[in-house]
């Protein structure tokens, strides 16, 4: 099938003379779905036009090129990797974060892998990828750690604190490369329990310890 055939609109589909915000979201969703399915190199403006039943010229008029369309799709569909989480304890927050990241991994991990190589060659695409998929998640996890320090659950100068977000988000990227599997809730929960919490000084008794006041913990530590 020629590119002209791929991009041709079905006769019964009316052309849209103006791209509405709702229509733009259709384009963005199609772009991200195609990236997850086939990767960046296989993505074409003709393919997007075919899937969304529009003229290829419409896409070029609005976005100019494939990289610009992908950047717009990342910005236009930006969603928080993590919902607002505040269980009252750092350990509880990190366990809930593991659950949420695990739920979204099947959607976010393929997209990140599809764009990683291309992003290294395009500063604009790299920036969009970080802003859409990485920075919001890191900010959410950093906020959990900061609240934990403010509550006295961990020392403010705990040397492991700055690496928590990199650990949680990094393992989401690393496991598919190392083991050929996406992370899921069970894997991330084990990772939190056995790698992150111990590095912060929060062991198996973290929920109970987190509920204690700093004075209670000092008294308990003095007795033990």
What does this structure look like?
The chain is mostly helical. It contains eleven helices and no strands. Mean pLDDT is 82; it is low at 1-17, 205-213 and 219-224.
Outline the fold blueprint:
Elements: H1 3-7, H2 21-38, H3 45-52, H4 56-63, H5 66-76, H6 90-120, H7 123-150, H8 164-179, H9 185-200, H10 206-211, H11 214-223
Helix pairs in contact: 2-3, 2-5, 2-6, 3-4, 5-7, 6-7, 6-8, 6-9, 7-8, 8-9
Summary tags:
224 residues; mainly alpha; disordered C terminus
Shape label = elongated
User: What is the percent of helical residues?
Assistant: over 70%
Average pLDDT over all residues:
82
Structural class: mainly alpha
Any idea what the radius of gyration is?
22 Å
In DSSP terms (H or I, runs of 4 or more residues), the helix count works out at: 11
Beta-strand percentage range: under 5%
Number of strands: 0
Distance between the termini: 75 Å
Largest sheet composition: none
Residue windows where pLDDT falls under 50 for at least 5 positions: 1-17, 205-213, 219-224
Oligomeric state of shown chains: single chain
Along the chain, the helix and strand elements come as HHHHHHHHHHH
Brief sketch in words of this structure:
70% of the residues lie in helices and 0% in strands.
């Amino acid at each position: 099938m020629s590119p002209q055939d791929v991009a041709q609109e079905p006769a019964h589909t009316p052309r849209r003379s103006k791209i509405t915000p709702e229509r733009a979201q259709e384009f963005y969703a199609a772009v991200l779905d195609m990236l997850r399915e086939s990767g960046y190199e296989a993505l074409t403006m003709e393919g997007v036009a075919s899937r969304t039943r529009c003229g290829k010229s419409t896409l070029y008029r609005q976005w100019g090129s494939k990289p610009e369309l992908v950047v717009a799709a990342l910005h236009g569909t930006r969603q928080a990797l993590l919902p607002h989480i505040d269980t009252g304890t750092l350990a509880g927050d990190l366990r809930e974060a593991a659950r949420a990241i695990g739920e979204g991994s099947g959607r976010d991990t393929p997209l990140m892998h599809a764009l990683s190589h291309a992003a290294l060659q395009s500063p604009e695409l790299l920036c969009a990828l970080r802003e859409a998929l990485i920075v919001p998640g890191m900010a959410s996890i950093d906020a959990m750690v900061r609240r934990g320090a403010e509550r006295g659950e961990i020392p403010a100068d705990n040397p492991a604190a700055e690496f928590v977000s990199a650990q949680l988000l990094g393992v989401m990227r690393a496991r598919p490369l190392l083991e050929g599997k996406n992370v899921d809730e069970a894997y991330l929960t084990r990772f939190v329990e056995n790698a992150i919490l111990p590095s912060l000084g929060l062991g198996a008794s973290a929920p109970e310890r987190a509920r204690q006041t700093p004075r209670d913990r000092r008294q308990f530590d003095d007795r033990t």
